Amino acid sequence: MTTKPRIIQVGSLAGSPSANQTLADRYDVVELWKFPDRKAALAEHGKGITAIVTSANFGANAELINALPDLKAICSWGVGYETIDVAAAQARGVQVSNTPDVLTDCVADLAWGLLIAAARRMGQGERFVRSGQWGQIHGSIPLGMRVSGKKLGIVGLGRIGDAIAKRGAGFDMQVRYHNRRKRDDVAYGYEASLVELARWADFLIVATVGGAGTRHLVNQEVLEALGPKGIVVNIARGPVIDETALVAALEAGKLGWAALDVFEHEPKVPQALLGSDQAVLLPHIGSATLETRQDMEDLMLENLRAFFETGRVVTPVE
Ligand code: 8YV
């Protein structure tokens, strides 16, 4: 009888087609989220564990990493890894992998869906029809805003930002971006100042990484520079936008609309946004298609398999 390798799974990957089941079939899984006392569970089951499976939702902090003396790999389901303490992992020689590329198109598609939904009042229109108001009263919802031909600013021109920018060509848009550094391999205009990018743009799509380095990057000044007709879209991480400043700018008429897939304190959404027709709100579904979630699952499992068979994960984080 061959014994299955033991792993720790930090949280349930219920948003993946079959990850929980496949992990349980292939590995001897310590399901950490089921233990009421995490510290005690790690003390009891941690020895001999060489791999952790997690996601950005659950992360892997230094306390977890350092509670596992034999840890060698952390395999995350998803591209973002700001909740994994990569420095603590690397200090211990622990490899960290994520699932890049496979979700790029779906997240970029959703960014455009959000932008069009806000500009064309799609949520408001849907609520109007569903509530039976159409045909029962005169008038309609307020006029929307043309999308094609406008100026698009992208915050963070990485893989996903790039895919969003490419789609801009199909809408005859001028595209500029803000990054820490100008990229030499693209023709889009670069704005070293995010405030200047927002001032220039009709629409601002946030596609940067999360974490301490980008927290509240999109602040009051940026939102007000985007202005009363501007639309901000966020498919990145909630904390990149100062949510309090966002609500204040919307309420004061200093920002036009917000179309958000991510929030500062998920799954909590500010009451002011819930009641606002100037907001389009989605429950963090950028990657949530069957095809993409399957691809993420396969890549996470491939990293784990490769680690156990070769000692190396296949898509390590940079
Ligand atoms: C997932 C994501 O929903 O990949 C990411 O970084 O935000 C999404 O694809 C997330 O990883 C779940 O925690």
Tell me what you see in this structure.
With 318 residues, this protein is an alpha/beta fold. The chain folds into two domains: 6-100 and 291-310, Rossmann fold (3-Layer(aba) Sandwich), CATH 3.40.50.720; 104-281, 3-Layer(aba) Sandwich (Rossmann fold), CATH 3.40.50.720. It is built from twelve helices and twelve strands. The strands form two sheets. A seven-stranded parallel sheet has the order 8-7-6-9-10-11-12, sandwiched between helices. It has a five-stranded parallel sheet with strand order 2-1-3-4-5. Strand 1 (6-9), helix 1 and strand 2 form a beta-alpha-beta unit. Helix 5 (104-119) packs across helix 7 (159-169) and helix 8 runs parallel beside helix 9 (220-226). The structure holds 2-keto-D-gluconic acid (8YV). 2-keto-D-gluconic acid (8YV) binds at residues 55-57, 78-80, 103, 284, 286-287.
